[in-house]
């Protein structure tokens, strides 16, 4: 019942849930609303993240997840809820100049 209510709530507020896909190798094409993580899944060693820019411009964004080569982002996956968050926020300096957080599997837009 709770699940149905949450689904209805998400549906009516048009909040798009994004999904995390862990992979050993990035696919050739990327789908909207999916965050792809490349790395050694077995040992939870993640290298890069790629996804379609959520603003709709269609560009593919790449985040470095390896902390020894900055700038890098940290990925936090909650084992209980499976929700994921990136830290810090993602700010594009070129083209669409989108600025957003990915927190609890949702895109939170920043108004600069
Ligand atoms: Zn964009």
From TrEMBL:
Recorded superkingdom: Bacteria
Pfam families: BubE
Record protein name field: Uncharacterized protein
